[in-house]
Amino acid sequence: MNTNIFLQIYHDYSERIQSGEIAAGTKLPSENDLTREYGISRETVRKALQLLSENGFIHKIKGKGSFVLDIGRMNFPLSGLVSFKEMSERIGRKSQTIVYRTEHIPIPPTVARHLETDKHATVWQVIRARNIEGEKVILDKDYFRSDIVPLLTTEIASGSIYAYLEQELNLQISYAKKVISVEDATTEDYELLDLKEYTHVVVVRNYVHLEDTTLFQYTESRHRLDKFQFVDFARRSPGEEK
């Protein structure tokens, strides 16, 4: 038998997923079922499923099986600073911001470390869920130095905070450092997001600076695994060594 039979399974299922024949959220046949269907070893089936997973077609959940991902995922740029409102306008999908909290609080110790500021300072804390096409799939937890952003309201938070900062406060937002990781979902994630069967979230930590290099905002953005892919464009410079 062709030793690359796992590629046949991969192509069979990837084409059916891309054509829409197998819809997002569908559970694939079990490893045992695929073994019988193709008349191959379970190890070969696992190689095919792993390849489907690595290429973003399925998500494997231990003890439950393999589920088809939405291959029309929303792209989030790694470089550049894009607000959720700007991103949602680009992707053209129905979206809504749900504001859970907008309050002026003493800075939490962990946030003080992230913002590299005095532990006795105060910040504006904004916690929002992003509902896209009927599902809450992003949880944004923003902290703004209150000596730079003296006022935030729920009304501002439900729209675009960046539009307010730039147009009303005339702040020059310049650049951000981003740290991306996959982490266990927290109790708060389960309460405020529609996580379904997912046990992990993609966490993007943003450290946002003004034009004068002042670090004024720390954001923790928590994304459901199946809805986003983070993209960047890289160019090789002449003379670089591999």
Automatic annotation (TrEMBL):
The keyword DNA-binding belongs to this UniProt entry's keyword annotation: yes
Alphabetical keyword list: DNA-binding, Transcription, Transcription regulation
Domain HTH gntR-type: 3-71
Pfam families the UniProt entry points to: GntR, UTRA
Domain of life: Bacteria
Record carries keyword Transcription regulation: yes
Protein name as catalogued: Trehalose operon repressor
Species the sequence originates in: Paenibacillus nicotianae
